[in-house]
């Protein structure tokens, strides 16, 4: 097993951190809006599915 060298480790971490490409403010804003819209759309979709199945179960239970 190779010996652990903390100095070399931190130098490699800094080198990798320099390669990171951060998004611009506009990219972050647009992505946030998109994520918010998708959350709302999925919430409405699952509300509809849940309501539909709830009504089906309620109907089936009323038959018993």
Describe the secondary structure blueprint for this structure.
Blueprint: H1 6-18, H2 25-63
Structure write-up:
With 64 residues, the protein is mostly helical. The chain has a domain at 40-64. Helix content is 81%, strand content 0%. The protein has 2 helices and no strands. It has helices at residues 6-18, 25-63. The relative contact order is 0.06. The model has no long low-confidence stretch (mean pLDDT 95). Essential subunit of the Sec protein translocation channel SecYEG. Clamps together the 2 halves of SecY. May contact the channel plug during translocation. It is a single-pass membrane protein. Belongs to the SecE/SEC61-gamma family.
Low-confidence runs (pLDDT<50, min 5 residues)? none
Distance between the termini: 69 Å
Number of strands: 0
The pLDDT mean sits at 95
Query: Would you list the SSEs in sequence order as H and E?
Result: HH
Largest sheet: none
Spatial extent as radius of gyration: 26 Å
- Give the class from helix and strand content and strand pairing: mainly alpha
What is the general shape?
A: elongated
Percent of residues in beta strands: under 5%
Helix proportion range: over 70%
Count of separate DSSP helical elements: 2
